[in-house]
Amino acid sequence: MQLESGAVATGRVTRVTDFGAFIQFENGETGLVHISQIAHSFVRSVSEHLQEGENVEVKVLGRDERGRLDLSIKELQDEPEEIPRPRAIGRQSPQFENKLRSFMRDAKERTTGGERRGSGGKKGGRR
User: Fold this and answer.
1) Where is the signal peptide (predicted)?
2) Domain limits for position 50
3) Residue 55 lies in a domain
4) How many domains does the chain have?
5) CATH assignment at residue 22
6) Distance between CA atoms of residues 30 and 73, nearest Å
7) In 16-39, which positions are buried (b, 16+ CB within 10 angstroms) versus exposed (e)?
8) Contact yes or no for 71/59 (Cβ under 8 A)
9) Is residue 92 part of a domain?
10) Would you state the pLDDT for residue 86?
11) First and final CA of the chain: distance in angstroms?
12) How far is residue 54 CA from its own chain's centroid?
């Protein structure tokens, strides 16, 4: 029995790596669940989600150009209703904004203050 795209099967985790986990099926075939296919949320470490020897249900996404199985766990999970968004940064205090404005003005004056102005408009060397 060969696993086809769209099939759902249970396999055993045989190896966990930084980039994903290898799953072996009863028919002897092995496929990869890439780290991006483990969960809908950010996966920092595959080993936090999967352990060697564990049985997992996966969906076959297809095969790569070399015939290797591409697998997904997250395709079998309900997608979260709301994707967590980064917290908004609150407005800074007026004192901070005033200090920042003053710093920027002083920095601009320091960097443009060293330029020569009013040199007669002539550039470069001698006559």
Assistant:
1) none
2) 8-76
3) yes
4) 1
5) 2.40.50.140
6) 15
7) beeebbbbebeeebebbbebebbe
8) yes
9) no
10) 61
11) 91
12) 26
Within a domain: 82: no
Structural domain contains residue 48:
yes
Q: What is residue 81's predicted lDDT score, i.e. its pLDDT?
A: 77
pLDDT at position 71:
96
Token pair 């609150």: residue: 90
19-48-2 Cα angle (round to 5): 55
> 4-24: per-residue pLDDT in tens?
899 999 999 999 999 999 999
pLDDT for position 4: 87
What Å distances lie between residue 78 and 11, 39, 41, 82, CA to CA? 20, 10, 12, 12
